[in-house]
Amino acid sequence: MFKNFKTYLIALFGFGFILSACTENTTNPTDNTPKPKPSPISNLMATSKDDKTVILKFTNSPSETDTLFKDYELVISPGTYAPMYFPKGTNQVTISNLQEGIIYTFSIAARYTNDSVSIPVSISWSPATRFVKNKNNDAIRLYETASDFPSGLRLFSPSDNAPRTYRVVDGAEWDLGLNTRNNKIIFGSATKIDYNYPTKPQPTQVLNQYFEADSLNAVFDSQAMNAGARDANYAERTFDLTTVNTKNLVFYVRKYEPGQTRYNYAKVMIKKNPSGGYLFGTSPNRYIELEISYQSKPDVPYAKTSAISQNNK
Amino acid sequence: MKTKLISIFLVIAFLSITFLSSDLIAQKKSTSSKPIKGQVVSLNDLVLNGKGRITKDQAKELAEQGNPIVFLSGKTVYFVYNEDGSFAGKRLANYANNEVVGIVGKTKKVNGLNIIIASIIESM
């Protein structure tokens, strides 16, 4: 009897196990199957269009070819910006209504119609004031050494709320300057330009490399103007523009404004003359023409640090 | 009678400006690469009050109303024209806040009026 009862229990347990196993398989057959997930965008870069606008550029997600692909989602912080959505094929986005001096984080993720989202790719950036004209509503020009017109530039004059040019007699106001002696076109830190200043100019540092571009809007960057090794590559220096003749040239510049102990950053673009070289006009009043993107808040090199995450592979 | 006088004055003024413009192009001009230095002034204020200095905003408003904005260098008043032959009063008005303005261009005297055809206007 006991032996039969034990056999009965084993049989009952075995039957119950089979039943439970069968039940589990039939109620949740796909729980462990992961949903397809889109690949992220790559090469996210930014540039400051003006004091309220930033332009983002990126390489599209490879998942755009998938039938599940839905769109891109852009999230902006800090602030109360609603997420923005862009259709596939979008690789450049202009974001307006921002505030200069605030470092924003822009995060873009690709989305599928099955609600799965790629890991977002982010960049930190800040808008900056763009100057294409001086306080007199004319082009910003620095004149050759032989001219009586100004050869020195102050990046930002608070009283004019714009860049301002000065002659050698006002050398103390110079940040950058132009010298065309000896058949050269020397542009750079005023302190490194050979003029007989009554008072020495303010030290202004220039990055050791310049960038060629069709316009300032085309100077996208993926990192801060002082990120990584760049920070050590700023110095008071000059460049000879007779050694290049390609496109517009963009220089990264920084300086302490009076009374400040943190740098203000700027991008200075020298326009190329379509006829060749970088000088316009006729001697002895030839000139270079500039556009300036100036960050009015100290210590905001557009992007504070290299805050890019593109490692979703 | 008054209306007739005003009409005659306007016709003479128009003809003077027309001949002046054509003369600017036709006559021989003096050119210097050195800027003429001076200040932007209102001709009306100069004539009526002996000063002429105005702010940029005032100058722009006056220029918009058709009042002449001119260039005072020492004791010489210049009427400034653009190279395309148009009167440069509105352009000049933008420089009214500058203490010293330099102009490079062709200068000439037409019927007693001093003229500059400006190729460069710049603060100094």
Could you explain how this protein is built, in words?
Chain A is mainly beta and 313 residues long. Chain A folds into two domains: 84 residues, Immunoglobulin-like, CATH 2.60.40; 184 residues, no CATH class. In chain A, the strands form four sheets. In chain A, strands 8, 9, 14, 15, 16, 18, 19 and 20 form an eight-stranded antiparallel sheet that branches. Chain A has a five-stranded antiparallel sheet with strand order 11-10-12-13-17, with no helix packed on it. Chain A has a four-stranded antiparallel sheet with strand order 4-3-6-7, with no helix packed on it. The N and C termini of chain A lie far apart (65 Å). Chain B folds into two domains: 30 residues; 92 residues, no CATH class. In chain B, 37% of the residues lie in helices and 37% in strands. Chain B contains four helices and five strands; from the N terminus they run αβααββαββ. The model of chain B has no long low-confidence stretch (mean pLDDT 85). At the A-B interface, loops of A face strand 1 and strand 5 of B.
